[in-house]
């Protein structure tokens, strides 16, 4: 699956699950994990860890993907690259509440696009995530 296909797949699956889960299942083939296991892994991270106050679940999913495939030490390096790339793609924010414009009324990035951007950031950053 190409990176663009993964991005589209994750965005389509978003209607059935939270943002973190959608990112994780888009990489199921690369991770060697079943969809049910990945959905359980990401179940508590949607909607900014359930409160919209935390980090976007899609970004959390991207870092999880990197962590699952990276050798020791590389996951932290990848995280340091994934976060700013996601932030750049999503209008300058990483917190769910900010992305959704809860306080400002200005949506910076829809959930579907957060999912797409998280998949892109993971795929661009982590060679094993492709």
How would you describe what is shown here?
The protein has 9 helices and no strands. Helix 2 runs parallel beside helix 6 (57-69) and helix 7 (74-89) packs across helix 9 (111-125). It has one domain. It has helices at 3-13, 19-26, 28-31, 35-42, 46-52, 57-69, 74-89, 96-99, 111-125. It has 130 residues and is mainly α. It is 66% helix and 0% strand.
Number of helices: 9
Global geometry:
globular
Which assembly state applies to the chains in this document?
single chain
The average pLDDT is 90
Radius of gyration: 13 Å
Structural class: mainly alpha
Low-pLDDT stretches: none
| Order of H and E elements | HHHHHHHHH
Count of extended strands: 0
Q: Count up the domains.
A: 1
Distance between the termini: 8 Å
% residues in beta strands:
under 5%
Helix content: 55-70%
How would a textbook summarize the main sheet? none
Describe the structure concisely for a colleague:
With about 130 residues, this protein is mostly helical. It contains nine helices and no strands.
For this entry, give a set of tags.
130 residues, mainly alpha, 9 helices, 66% helix, globular
Secondary structure layout plus pairing:
Blueprint: H1 3-13, H2 19-26, H3 28-31, H4 35-42, H5 46-52, H6 57-69, H7 74-89, H8 96-99, H9 111-125
Helix pairs in contact: 1-2, 1-9, 2-4, 2-6, 2-9, 6-7, 6-9, 7-9
């Amino acid at each position: 699956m190409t990176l663009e296909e993964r991005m589209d797949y994750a965005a389509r699956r978003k209607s059935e699950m939270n943002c973190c889960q959608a990112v994780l299942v888009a990489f199921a083939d690369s991770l060697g994990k079943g969809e049910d296991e990945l959905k359980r892994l990401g179940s508590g991270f949607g909607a900014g860890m359930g409160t919209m106050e935390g980090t976007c679940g899609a970004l959390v999913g991207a870092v999880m993907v990197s962590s699952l495939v990276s050798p020791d030490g590389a996951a932290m390096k990848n995280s340091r690259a994934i976060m700013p790339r996601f932030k750049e793609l999503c209008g300058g924010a990483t917190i769910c509440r900010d992305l959704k414009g809860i306080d400002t009324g200005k949506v910076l990035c829809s959930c579907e696009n957060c999912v797409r951007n998280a998949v892109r950031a993971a795929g661009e950053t982590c060679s094993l995530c492709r």
